[in-house]
Amino acid sequence: MDAKHNLALVREWERLYNTDRNLLFDTLYAAECRVVYNGVSEFDGREALREYQAQVDEHAPRRKLAVERVHAAGDIVVVETVVRLDPAAAALGACVVLTIRDGKIVEDRTYAPAGA
């Protein structure tokens, strides 16, 4: 996919993160995706990612993400985001490095404060 398609995928990723994370995982992540969170936690596959996000949802069910900047080169997209655990909460900066192949996220490397 070219940069234009990858940028469109990131906009859909943002929208679904905020509206339906299960649909996000089902439609944008490859079944055998790999997710690395802060270089500490690693998840292989959509189901492991879904289980992890369910735990995060228990602690921050109202969290929202906003994409601030996007940098795309080939199949790599770097996404600078702001996450709010609650609408009134302070903004937390985060960075996500996505590897996209055949229109699906095959790797997600997230660098964020805990719970974001």
Automatic annotation (TrEMBL):
Pfam families: SnoaL_2. InterPro entries: NTF2-like_dom_sf (IPR032710), SnoaL-like (IPR037401). Residues 10-107 form the SnoaL-like domain. This is SnoaL-like domain-containing protein.
